Amino acid sequence: MRRIKDKELINKYIKLHNIEDLFNDNIRSNLELLFFSKRELIFRDGGQVEYLMFFVEGKAKVYSSLKNGKLLLLDFYKELDTLGDLELITNDLASCNVEAIEPCVCLGIPLKTLKNIYHEDTKLLNFLCSSLGKKLKRSSRNSAINLMYPLESRLASYIISIGNSNSKVIRFDETLTIISELLGTSYRHLLRTLNNLCDKNILMKENDCYTILDYEKLEALAADIYK
Questions:
Q1: Among 91, 105, 143, 181, which one has the highest count of C-beta atoms within 10 angstroms of its own C-beta?
Q2: Are 36 and 106 in contact (CB under 8 A)?
Q3: In which residue ranges of the chain is CATH 2.60.120.10 found?
């Protein structure tokens, strides 16, 4: 993580996302810009949380580490999602991993600054409550996708969720073993499913990446998209 205090750049992101009224003067003076590289862990399961963060650029995936060593996909975070809100309220350690899918930028407020004042700031508190509600709704929906849809649909949804709208090339940064864990399946089943999508001319494998040949079919196959 790289952190800077650049008032001009901070104000640029605040105006870009129309959140000028969200921060009072005391909080605004403590805002920092936090930069994360692709694949960097923003939160680590069981780690200390130092900031309340507001996503202003980029995308990250959220997954939990189970006691049996497996991983489980929970959610995706993007612009204006918040991180650290639950930990601020409960004073707990991070309960999941948050990993940058692409370079990410967050507005960060040190939790030690907020501990004794956030409950008096109605605008910020309402925003955090709304954000928590939206994440709970998304998490429930994503859990339903994990339980109720076949792997082909879950994989299509995952590819769309991690993809870049400006590119049809999908390059998996993780091993297929990790992806199979995130999607709750075996490596062999995942490989068969990827090959089936290639046989259907939806994907095409090229060296270490896949190209989307038919985005509409992939989207139709996904049905519900991880959000």
A1: 181
A2: yes
A3: 2-146
Phi-psi domain of 167 (left: phi exceeds 0; alpha: psi -120 through 50; beta: other): beta
Other Cβ atoms less than 10 A from the Cβ of 49: the count is 20
Q: Cα separation of 55 and 45, whole Å?
A: 19
| CATH (residue range 2-146) | 2.60.120.10
Whole-model pTM: value is: 0.85
* Among the listed residues 124, 125, 127, 184, the one whose alpha carbon sits nearest the alpha carbon of residue 158: 184
pLDDT digits 0-9 by tens, 133-173:
988 888 888 888 787 889 999 999 898 888 766 667 777 77
DSSP 94-119: P-SEEEESS-EEEEEEEHHHHTTTGG
3-state SS, 195-218, equals HHHHHCCCEEEECCEEEECCHHHH
